[in-house]
Automatic annotation (TrEMBL):
GO terms for molecular function: fatty acid elongase activity. It is a multi-pass membrane protein. This is Elongation of very long chain fatty acids protein. It comes from Platychelipus littoralis. It catalyses: a very-long-chain acyl-CoA + malonyl-CoA + H(+) = a very-long-chain 3-oxoacyl-CoA + CO2 + CoA. One of its GO terms (biological process) is very long-chain fatty acid biosynthetic process. Its main location: membrane. The lineage of its organism: Eukaryota, Metazoa, Ecdysozoa, Arthropoda, Crustacea. GO terms for cellular component: endoplasmic reticulum membrane.
Length: 272
């Protein structure tokens, strides 16, 4: 049994070393780019903190009042998302990028390097978003630390890392473009919600945020999946499968959340 395990580990290591030859060397030396293991560790630690350590720590404590912190944090997230979104448009998707097929520019020209930086900044922003969950735990809003929430936040850095390490910019960055647009609206909603009950009437559109997130994953799926039928596109089809698969997973999770939160509850209210 041990011999089989050692053999499998060695096979994995050989495969990893072979794949590593195809990395984008422009991000060598950048934070968290030396290997996937630090990202895996941070994501695993995040899950442990929000599902085990955090709730245990807060068990006999009063919920924290984080109103003003959340207001500042949500404004920061809106600004960060808006910056990434606008710069992705300026340096690619609003200019000479093709929605049909966009190979990665591996050169060192300024626009190509800017797309690499924006890809890394988007990746880094996924760790900043862990603060969302930490605040739920500190406020003892444990019901909001749902399976969907934890999977979504815990997997995103792992989902983005391969694209950043091997194909930063190019076709894969379309996901970041749509996702940052959604996050501009999402953190605007969170900011208004943090203002208090007096402003709840201004955020009647909460359920439509979930709709928008689901639509986002549909667009990303078809944008990636089309490459499978486009033989002349100089973009690795393996990443098309990867992005399409992630999109399907999140679409299913968000669909289940939407059905349970809105459709099922609405049906029960109608019956009663």
């Amino acid at each position: 049994m041990l011999d089989v395990l050692v053999k499998k580990v060695m096979e994995y290591q050989d495969l990893y070393n072979e794949a590593w030859k195809y990395r984008d060397q422009r991000v060598d030396g950048w934070p968290l780019m030396s290997s996937p293991y630090p990202t895996i560790f941070i994501c695993a630690l995040y899950v442990y903190i929000v599902k085990v350590a955090g709730p245990n720590y807060m068990k006999d404590k009063e919920p924290m009042n984080l109103k003003y912190f959340l207001m500042v944090y949500n404004v920061f997230q809106v600004v960060l998302s808006a910056y990434i979104f606008v710069e992705l448009l300026k340096n690619g998707w609003g200019g000479d990028y093709s929605f049909r097929c966009q190979p990665v520019d591996f050169s060192n020209n300024p626009k190509a390097l800017k797309m690499v930086f924006l890809s890394w900044l988007y990746f880094a922003s996924k760790f900043v978003e862990f603060i969302d969950t930490f605040c739920f735990v500190l406020r003892k809003k444990f019901s909001q630390v749902s399976l969907l929430h934890v999977i979504h936040h815990g997997i995103m850095p792992l989902a983005v890392w391969p694209g950043l390490r091997f194909v930063p910019g190019g076709h894969a960055s379309f996901f970041g473009l749509l996702n940052t647009f959604v996050h501009i609206l999402m953190y605007t909603y969170y900011f208004v919600a943090a203002l208090g009950p007096r402003y709840q009437r201004f955020i009647w559109w909460k359920r439509y945020l979930t709709n928008l997130q689901m639509i986002q994953f549909v667009f990303v799926f078809f944008h990636s999946f089309q490459l499978i039928f486009y033989e002349d596109c100089d973009f690795p089809v393996l990443f098309a499968y990867w992005i399409a698969g992630i999109s399907v997973m999140f679409f299913v999770l968000f669909s289940q959340f939407y059905i349970q939160t809105y459709l099922t509850k609405y049906s029960k209210k109608k019956v009663t």
